[in-house]
Design a protein that fits this description.
alpha+beta; 6-stranded antiparallel β-sheet
Length: 418
Amino acid sequence: RIIIMAVFKPFRAIRPSANHVKAVASRPYDVLNSNEARQEAEGNDLSFLHVVKPEIDLPVDTDPYSDAVYDKGKVNFQDLMSRGILNQDPDSSFYIYRLTMDGRSQTGLVGCCFFEEYFDGIIKKHELTRPVKENDRVRHVECLNANAEPVFFSYRGKSSINEFVRHKTTETPEYNFIADDRIKHELWPISNTEDTKFITDAFKEVPYLYVADGHHRTAAAARIGKKRKEENPIHTGKEEYNYFLTVLFPDDELKIFDYNRLVKDLNGLSSPDFLTKLEDSFIVSQYGEGDPQPTMIREFSLYLEGKWYRLLAKDGCWDENDPVGDLDVTILSEKVLSPLLNIVDLRKDNRIDFVGGIRGLSELKRRVDSGEMVAAFALYPVTMEQLLTIADAGEIMPPKTTWFEPKLRSGLFVHDLE
């Protein structure tokens, strides 16, 4: 019998009408830098980037963490509301949200999770957060008094929920558009009382939720809930600030892409010496004409001086009894980055950079060939099962281990904390 249960509740979303949704919907705040966001929103005053990256409407040299930026985001959000571009639904609802990319679909349920569950361990994480980014999201949410962007959660799938979602998505979606990046987005509001009760009850039998993408937003939401609870002498636990915006996806529908590494130098080693030292831990061979993309765990690809090399980890390079020690990113850190290149702190060392696998190996090759970087390492992706196992063990993955695609679009639904 499961005693622990996940709280998942419907809410009155603030969202665009179907005829405005494509113009409003934007990529999330953390996948674009300010210049990229400025270019993407150019000529589109409805883009939600004006809310989640509001520095694009201020002078180029504006500090992105200044009060002016958060205030501008609030002004832009209120402007979309006052113009009727965004409106709040009259009834508390869940929403079914399906994304389709390259023929593969993932379908999640949009609702609100309870902040206390982050502290209680029901919402499980697998990454550490950086204070500067966490503080940024706290200030953004506090200024808007709303969760502008959802967090991307997963759970171990349940057949009853899958069947409910499958049945509902046979109906015509309210939103159905293909974004500029060719990803299709569909949304079905679920406001019928019987249906919302089914979803709420079904998640009472889901013991844990897992942060897939959005650790900073989750941590920020938990901090805001805790702060408002402490500041409210008549706190009941029912207030809207106790909840934050999430999309929950069954684990078997998600795909993790590789997260690759680039290094600026070889720590004083010549390329031949570096390759020789790699042979202590890897079987090293040069690729011929084939695709250098790693095809299995323990296999790495190295791009160095215009050539691709295959690195196959030798037995003893990993710890099968440790879910983190068993990861390829750990092997790379412990056998290459730290001992050979003296790159120890992946969060702070500016000699290393990270590239999501969605950009392909050509991006790694381009940055090395340009002279910006000296070498690139391509990895095989982590699996969802590895992620869940690590989170269940209370362990933390190394930085920049998972890259999820497709990303949730922002601006499709907002949660008002009042």
